[in-house]
Amino acid sequence: TGYITLDYGFKNTGSTQSAVTFLDGEKGILKHRGYSIEELCEKSTFLEVANLLIYGNLPNKAHLASFTESIKGYQLVHENYRKILEGFPSHTHPMGILSALATTLNAFHPEALDPHRPNEQVDLSIQKLMGKLPTFTAWAYTHAKGIAHNYPKSGLGYVENFLHMMFSTKLKEYEIDPVIVRALEKLLILHADHEQNCSASTVRIVGSSNASIYASVAAGINALWGPLHGGANQGVIQMLDEIQADGGNVEKYINKAKDKDDPFRLMGFGHRVYKNFDPRAKIIKKDADAVLAKLGVSDPILDIAKKLEETALQDSYFIERKLFPNVDFYSGIILKAIGIPTLMFPVMFAMGRLPGWIAQWKEMRENKEPIGRPRQIYTGNTDLEYKPIEMRS
Ligand code: CMC
């Protein structure tokens, strides 16, 4: 079988060639299709960045308009989704709901199961996913709250519609605040892709078996759910709340994180690739301050977050291991200020990451990559004698 290299966690193994996202972990650079994350955050909308990631170029006006219109047309979901949602206990984690609903798209749109469809038809599945995922996300929330689901409204933009579906009630239409819309746009852009991370690799490997784009993205959602990946933003707020309830004793939690006998880790700290700083964290930290100021919200956990960051960055444990705040350290503070509940944070990450998963899946398909099938180094027995059950100890 030849020589097999062992690389736990694929720390040093390239699984593909990709032209989607460039990342320099030493210098803290992140670029999508050649454009810096700083500039995209400043100048683009989320759908523009989605189009860039999926199709490779910044769209002109006409392309962006037709992409946007098509996605809008797909925001409505089949009425049976009400019944499907009713079946979930109200305490179901919204990531579980989101991945389940993404999988059910195979039932309502089975044409996606044909791996040999022409690209134009694949595009329609892509736009369906982009249209329906925010509706699923908002409906997961209204289901948990036990309130009526909202339909998307035709006059609203992508992010505005999401906020409307989340927060409008029978009694009161949600008031769109441009500050909140822009903050959310930026947050989604910041999460839009991050090359071969755990969920993107999952999407590619599942897709490499010719599974449908819906099945592949559903797998990506499940991979993102874990607290070491997209679940970290939920973990950060829970940790900051806990520190606050514990009298704001930041040092105690730093020491816990350093203690090798304690499984606790500082959530929102450290990154597999960034070893100086996470450029997304830099942008988001500034934004957290600005959004809270603009919304007139004061949140004591922002002070705890800052103190935790300052203390950790001066501590030799974190310095030696090059552990810095990552994107999720401050994202939860913005989401909380917008009124999104903590359990919903990972689903917000999923909504942002969707175009990245799609771009990675599409690239894998267009590259005609072989089925993903890692090897192993076997360490078990090879020559045991079979014992009948009555003779086993
Ligand atoms: N708190 C305390 N110690 C840590 C932390 C942390 N947050 N992160 C890493 N370390 C230590 C780890 O114990 C190890 O120490 P030692 O060398 O003494 O054994 C060393 O740093 C290297 O860590 P690692 O786990 O080998 O590094 P990794 O590249 O496998 O893991 C990570 C990267 C992001 C999973 C990890 O840093 C972590 O668990 N962070 C907390 C969870 C988190 O914030 N995740 C969000 C990542 S960014 C969003 C995304 O893209 O998903």
What's the topology here?
Elements: E1 21-24, E2 29-32, E3 35-36, H1 37-43, H2 46-55, H3 61-73, H4 80-86, H5 94-108, H6 119-145, H7 158-167, H8 178-190, H9 198-207, H10 213-225, H11 232-245, H12 250-258, H13 279-295, H14 300-313, H15 316-320, H16 327-338, H17 345-366
Antiparallel strand pairs: 1-2, 2-3
Helix pairs in contact: 1-8, 2-17, 3-6, 5-6, 5-10, 6-7, 6-17, 8-13, 8-16, 8-17, 9-10, 9-17, 10-17, 11-14, 11-16, 13-16
The protein binds carboxymethyl coenzyme *A (CMC).
Keywords: Plasmid, Transferase, Tricarboxylic acid cycle
Catalytic activity: oxaloacetate + acetyl-CoA + H2O = citrate + CoA + H(+)
Pathway: Carbohydrate metabolism; tricarboxylic acid cycle; isocitrate from oxaloacetate: step 1/2
Q: Can you offer a commentary on this structure?
A:
The chain is globular and about 70 Å long. It is built from 17 helices and three strands. Strand 2 (29-32) and strand 3 (35-36) form a beta hairpin. It has helices spanning 37-43, 46-55, 61-73, 80-86, 94-108, 119-145, 158-167, 178-190, 198-207, 213-225, 232-245, 250-258, 279-295, 300-313, 316-320, 327-338, 345-366, and strands spanning 21-24, 29-32, 35-36. Helix 1 packs antiparallel against helix 8 (178-190) and helix 5 (94-108) runs antiparallel to helix 10. It is 55% helix and 3% strand. It folds into two domains: 40-226 and 351-366, Citrate Synthase, domain 1 (Orthogonal Bundle), CATH 1.10.580; 232-338, Cytochrome P450-Terp, domain 2 (Cytochrome p450-Terp, domain 2). By secondary structure, the chain is mostly helical. Strands 1-2-3 form a three-stranded antiparallel β-sheet. Carboxymethyl coenzyme *A is lined by residues 9, 194, 197, 228-230, 232, 257, 265-272, 321, 323, 326-328.
